[in-house]
Design a protein that fits this description.
Helix 8 (about 180-195) crosses helix 10 (about 215-245) and helix 10 (about 215-245) packs antiparallel against helix 11 (about 250-270). The chain has one domain. It has helices at about 1-15, 20-40, 55-75, 90-110, 115-135, 140-160, 165-175, 180-195, 205-210, 215-245, 250-270, 280-290, 300. By secondary structure, the protein is mostly helical. The longest helix is centred in the last third of the chain and has 31 residues, at about 215-245. The model is unreliable at about 80-85 and about 295-300 (pLDDT under 50). It has 13 helices and no strands.
Amino acid sequence: MRYVGVYLTVIGVLAFVSIKHLYPILFLQIIWGTGLAAVEVIHGVPLSEDLGQHYITLGVPIGASLVAAFGLIIFSSSKFFLCKRIKSMLLFKLILYICIVLDLIAICSLFGRSPVLASSLTILMFIILKIGFMESKIVTKSKQFIWYLFVIMLLSIVATQVLSDYWLNRLLRFFNNYEEEPRMLLIKPAMEFISENWLGYGLNSSDFLVGYHPHNIFIEVTLSAGIIGLSFMLLLVLLYAICMMKSINLNPSITSMSMVALFLFLVWMTSYSLAHSYILFSAIAMVIKTVDEGFVPQESID
């Protein structure tokens, strides 16, 4: 039933979501993620291990809020911005920067590495894409590079003040002795089972073969559906990548949703299971569904 829920959610997104829904979705995500971040910073959010809650439970919504806010700041312009709804872009971006700082402090206070690294890589990648593909003048590229470098350095200082020694030690352990990583203890036997049967073992096979999902969505798909399932997964990722590149010059709501989708994809590469991937595939479906609508002038969308 969990997998049926994934299919139904994606079908619902493809059927009912359009570009006009992206801004409300992004704003709600920022409100929800920043709200959780504020509570976490003030006195902490209680998590129940009995319900399967852990740092990722908080890290995903807060990280999605962080990259969504960054996307709206980076890609909003007078050409696309919703001037009818928000009078002052400066005030709007100031609010988003406050959300970013709260999200950053909260996400760096968690024990897990995935939300921090996934959000950081997503933001860096889209900054590079913006400077490289959106701006044509060398002077503009230089100014933006200096500004974003300043912002990144400032936020890095904030992050280093919050990151715990435990987090840093886990990060160093990955680079110094990655073979003893807990994830590798799941990935290695999963790869051995895949090498013995390239056609897969069926849904939930990782639970009875490995004992737990292998913390990598490609490996879990291959373990379950074999090389055929992996091929469909790779085609979907390729389609998303094409749409993501197209979104760089489109409506900022699509670009920001592309950032959220990339963040979720990176998290699912290292953490969550296929059974809970409705969040990931819904974000990807929104990007694929709305990217062609982004070529329509903003005035006709409002």
